[in-house]
Amino acid sequence: MTAVPAAAKRQRPDPSSLSEAELIARTKASDEDAIRIIIQRNNQRLFRAARTIVGNDAEAEDVVQATYVQAFINLSAFRENSRLSTWLTRIALNEAFARVRVRRDFTGLEEIDMQNKASGGGLLHFPSSLASADPEAELARNQTRHLLEHAIDALPAEFRTVFILRDVEGFSTEETSSLLGIKLETTKTRLHRARKMMRLSIEKQFSGAFSALFPFDGARCADMADRVVTAFRAIQAGEEDSSIPSPGGTTQ
């Protein structure tokens, strides 16, 4: 009698290859692999957006972690007629703006402008090439990245946020306006002024360097995933107060 071959065991798809909709569905079912993939795909964007507003790495990481926890607990509130990255960015911006309002006691934009001018914010000069790949060139690239970060940090807050969302993260002008809760024309004006301050030559010569700004990957990325998964487990188990406010309100 001829043996019948056993049916091939179906392998579970690699979560990293799943679509956004599939990842969302799995996250709703508490799939930790899916949670980690979502975190890995969005860490850089959320960290940049948060850091642009709060101004330092440590608090920006706190904002990103709070964003993920809010998002995963309230994932049923996500309407899939927009990108998940846009929804997550809105939550991060809301969280960051809330922290700044508490810290600065509702400091007005006019005072922020004065503070930036007093701190010496202005135009910087940069090396003209990033082409070489030798160790000395790598050092030059790192120095250039720091100079770019410094130049961005020196922008007035309202211009800096628009510049990061629009030119660094690639959100459309309409998406940027929606995320910040400001008029389309205001977004365009702020972007124009931000670009002018950063100088047109920087946009042309260093556009490829923007992907390396404010790095948030490797061990830091993995650690963020671990912390969020731990917090998510604790909330699901009822070990923490899960009365986290639903995200998605206006930023200001």
Beta content? under 5%
Strand runs, count:
0
Helix and strand element order: HHHHHHHHHHH
Rounded Rg: 21 Å
Portion of residues within helices = 55-70%
Please tell me what the overall shape is: globular
- The low-confidence parts are 106-110, 115-132
How many helical elements? Answer: 11
What's the average pLDDT?
76
- What structural class should be given to the helix and strand makeup? mainly alpha
* Largest beta-sheet characterization: none
Termini separation comes to: 76 Å
What layout of secondary structure does this protein have?
Layout (H helix, E strand, L loop, with lengths): L19 H9 L3 H23 L2 H17 L10 H21 L4 H10 L16 H19 L3 H12 L4 H8 L3 H15 L1 H6 L12 H19 L16
Helix pairs in contact: 1-2, 2-3, 2-4, 2-7, 2-11, 3-4, 3-11, 7-9, 8-9
Would you write up a description of this structure?
This protein is mainly alpha-helical. The protein has 11 helices and no strands. The longest helix has 23 residues, at 32-54. The model is unreliable at 106-110 and 115-132 (pLDDT under 50).
Q: Which short descriptors sum up this protein?
A:
252 residues; mainly alpha; 63% helix; globular
Care to give the gist of this entry?
The protein is 63% helix and 0% strand. The protein has helices at 20-28, 32-54, 57-73, 84-104, 109-118, 135-153, 157-168, 173-180, 184-198, 200-205, 218-236. It is globular.
